[in-house]
């Protein structure tokens, strides 16, 4: 069908995303032109399906402006007029003095994911446009300082949030002006958020500055080239990871990278591989910066003298005389977290705990003497290298005392407590660019935590 939006086909825009297989779909709607254009295009598309999912518009009130509550209420009235379910979620947490835009974005997606889970919705759909895509590229290019950064592939049309909810951005090839023209024809008014013109924030500065002067088509071509380069590096790693000899892991998460397999890769693929392993070992959600990845690659390739370096919370050691390169967590800034009944918690970005039992624990790394005494009292003799691995691993404390140490052969473990490996770089926000790479890494490293041998 053709939409009431002249020139825009909902079927062409939304069909590739497979929204029809969902029970419900969340549309993120702020009241601006992009999100309202998305909402009504999406409504038109879902009406063509034989068994359409429920459409739920969700407005996040960030509580950053006095007018925001009224604007959210007006979105609700518009949705009511058109028979669309609507709810408002509020970001009520204290606002940071610095990094407000990033904190607001994190809070927004957290609230949207929770709304999706509560509604049983498989998708969150956002109104990011071609203009946003161009701005994202220009922002990332300015930050990276060169034209080879992976982030220059810009936003992926598809992503996976928190390992379970799909994020769809179907309007990345649609201009903001096209949406505004169609909203005007339909008689639907939108709100212009004044923060979008506040040059204290990075995106408005880019939007009103370099993006306004940029050749949009040329930028889109550069995005396509960056995306192709990212896919090539990813494909090289996927191929390498298919060989079990390339990468190994022990129970506590230390990874062993075959030096010959690593050397056979292109420089770009080597930088990606070692940076990725540093992020996994350090429990980080992002890759190290371009400069840090190049530094790691130079050291592992023997071009720089040091054999060891610490990056992103990971201790990296170059293998000598055919030995594998090693990646493990450094023994600093390891957290202490409470684990109460019914809780699901991520520890240090590396391990995920589920407590379906009735006891409460504290998760923390064991102290050296505590661990020595624990092993002695349990009649265990563990070699020094294995002890070092346990000192950067989580243990369970009960009543202030070390009670359970995972990964020990035949060790006691409390009923109802489950532990598995967590990949922070993939498990929170996974761009569609990296779906195949994430699958290859998980297939090689696994989620299950084995015993130390």
TrEMBL record:
<feature type="binding site">
    <location>
        <begin position="30"/>
        <end position="35"/>
    </location>
    <ligand>
        <name>ATP</name>
    </ligand>
</feature>
<dbReference type="GO" id="GO:0016853">
    <property type="term" value="F:isomerase activity"/>
</dbReference>
<keyword id="KW-0547">Nucleotide-binding</keyword>
<comment type="similarity">
    <text>Belongs to the tRNA(Ile)-lysidine synthase family.</text>
</comment>
<feature type="domain" description="tRNA(Ile)-lysidine/2-thiocytidine synthase N-terminal">
    <location>
        <begin position="25"/>
        <end position="207"/>
    </location>
</feature>
<comment type="function">
    <text>Ligates lysine onto the cytidine present at position 34 of the AUA codon-specific tRNA(Ile) that contains the anticodon CAU, in an ATP-dependent manner. Cytidine is converted to lysidine, thus changing the amino acid specificity of the tRNA from methionine to isoleucine.</text>
</comment>
<dbReference type="Pfam" id="PF01171">
    <property type="entry name" value="ATP_bind_3"/>
</dbReference>
<dbReference type="GO" id="GO:0005737">
    <property type="term" value="C:cytoplasm"/>
</dbReference>
<keyword id="KW-0067">ATP-binding</keyword>
<dbReference type="GO" id="GO:0005524">
    <property type="term" value="F:ATP binding"/>
</dbReference>
<keyword id="KW-0819">tRNA processing</keyword>
<dbReference type="InterPro" id="IPR014729">
    <property type="entry name" value="Rossmann-like_a/b/a_fold"/>
</dbReference>
<protein>
    <recommendedName>
        <fullName>tRNA(Ile)-lysidine synthase</fullName>
        <ecNumber>6.3.4.19</ecNumber>
    </recommendedName>
</protein>
<dbReference type="InterPro" id="IPR011063">
    <property type="entry name" value="TilS/TtcA_N"/>
</dbReference>
<keyword id="KW-0436">Ligase</keyword>
<dbReference type="InterPro" id="IPR012795">
    <property type="entry name" value="tRNA_Ile_lys_synt_N"/>
</dbReference>
<keyword id="KW-0413">Isomerase</keyword>
<dbReference type="InterPro" id="IPR012094">
    <property type="entry name" value="tRNA_Ile_lys_synt"/>
</dbReference>
<dbReference type="GO" id="GO:0032267">
    <property type="term" value="F:tRNA(Ile)-lysidine synthase activity"/>
</dbReference>
<dbReference type="GO" id="GO:0006400">
    <property type="term" value="P:tRNA modification"/>
</dbReference>
<keyword id="KW-0963">Cytoplasm</keyword>
């Amino acid at each position: 069908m053709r939409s009431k939006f002249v020139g825009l086909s909902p079927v062409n825009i939304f069909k590739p995303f497979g929204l029809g297989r969902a029970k419900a779909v969340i549309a993120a709607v702020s009241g601006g032109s992009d999100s309202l254009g998305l909402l009504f295009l999406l409504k038109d598309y879902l009406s063509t399906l034989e068994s359409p999912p429920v459409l739920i518009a969700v407005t996040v009130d960030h509580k950053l402006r006095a007018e925001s509550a009224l604007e959210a209420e007006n979105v609700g009235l518009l949705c009511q007029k058109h028979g669309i379910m609507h709810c408002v979620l509020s970001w009520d947490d204290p606002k940071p003095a610095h990094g407000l835009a990033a904190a607001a974005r994190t809070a927004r997606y957290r609230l949207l994911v929770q709304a999706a889970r509560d509604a049983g919705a498989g998708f969150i759909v956002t109104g990011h446009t071609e203009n946003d895509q161009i701005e994202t590229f220009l922002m990332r290019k300015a930050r990276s300082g060169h034209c080879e950064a992976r982030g220059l592939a810009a936003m992926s049309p598809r992503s996976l949030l928190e390992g379970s909810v799909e994020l769809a951005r179907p309007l990345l090839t649609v201009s903001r002006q096209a949406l505004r023209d169609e909203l005007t024809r339909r008689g639907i008014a939108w709100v212009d958020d004044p923060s979008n013109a506040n040059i204290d924030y990075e995106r408005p500065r880019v939007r009103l500055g370099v993006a306004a002067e940029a050749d949009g088509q040329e930028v889109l071509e550069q995005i396509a080239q960056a995306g192709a380069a990212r896919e090539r590096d990813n494909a090289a790693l996927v191929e390498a990871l298919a060989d079990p000899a390339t990468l190994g892991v022990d129970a506590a998460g230390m990874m062993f990278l075959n030096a010959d397999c690593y050397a056979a890769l292109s420089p770009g693929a080597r930088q990606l591989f070692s940076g990725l392993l540093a992020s996994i070992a350090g429990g980080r959600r992002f890759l190290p910066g371009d400069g840090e990845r190049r530094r790691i690659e130079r050291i592992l390739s023997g071009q720089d003298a040091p054999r060891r370096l610490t990056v992103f919370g990971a201790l990296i050691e170059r293998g000598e005389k055919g030995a594998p390169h090693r990646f493990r967590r450094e023994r600093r800034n390891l957290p202490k977290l409470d684990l109460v009944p019914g809780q699901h918690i991520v520890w240090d970005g590396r391990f995920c705990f589920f407590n379906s039992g009735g006891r409460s624990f504290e998760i923390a790394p064991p102290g050296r003497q505590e661990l020595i005494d624990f092993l002695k009292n349990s009649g265990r003799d563990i070699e020094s290298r294995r002890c070092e691995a346990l000192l950067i691993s989580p243990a369970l404390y009960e009543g202030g005392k070390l009670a359970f140490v995972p990964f020990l052969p035949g060790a006691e473990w409390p009923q109802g407590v489950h532990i598995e490996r967590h990949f922070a770089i993939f498990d929170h926000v996974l761009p569609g660019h990296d779906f195949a790479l994430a699958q290859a890494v998980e297939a090689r490293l696994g989620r299950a935590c084995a015993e130390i041998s």
